């Protein structure tokens, strides 16, 4: 693996990179040379990490794992849909109850209005 060494002025760096002093002398002599290193948790682009022999899976194991994940996802989706339907029923019941209360209130107000009209209107016989 070849290491890249370059002089850095500060504009070229990323937040994800780290500068470490190089043990090689700078080409110009007056400017220190720094080596750009990626943080230890990330890998350079294009690097493939080989899995350990114990973690390799056969196509059958991969298919079984995919099936298991799909079934788990479907089960979670069914539960979420069931909960959604329950909440919707509760909401509809609440709305129906509110409609009933408002209908009673509306009927009472109409009756009160009719009574007040009878009291205030001049009687013609």
From TrEMBL:
PROSITE patterns: BZIP (PS50217), BZIP_BASIC (PS00036). Pfam families: bZIP_1. The keyword Nucleus applies. Its main location: nucleus. Keywords: Coiled coil, DNA-binding, Nucleus, Transcription, Transcription regulation. Gene3D superfamilies: 1.20.5.170. It is found in: Nucleus. This is cAMP-responsive element modulator isoform X2. It comes from Phyllostomus discolor (pale spear-nosed bat).
């Amino acid at each position: 693996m070849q290491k890249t060494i370059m002089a850095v002025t500060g504009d070229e760096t990323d937040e994800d990179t780290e500068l470490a002093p190089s043990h090689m002398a700078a080409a110009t002599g007056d400017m220190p040379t720094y080596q750009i290193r990626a943080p230890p948790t990330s890998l350079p682009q294009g690097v493939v990490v080989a899995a350990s022999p114990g973690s390799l899976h056969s196509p059958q194991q991969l298919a079984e794992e995919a099936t298991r994940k799909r079934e788990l996802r479907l089960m979670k989706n069914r539960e979420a849909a069931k909960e959604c339907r329950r909440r919707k029923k509760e909401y509809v019941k609440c709305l129906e109850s509110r409609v009933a209360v408002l209908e009673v209130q509306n009927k009472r107000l109409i009756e009160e209005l009719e009574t007040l009209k009878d009291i205030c209107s001049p009687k013609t016989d």
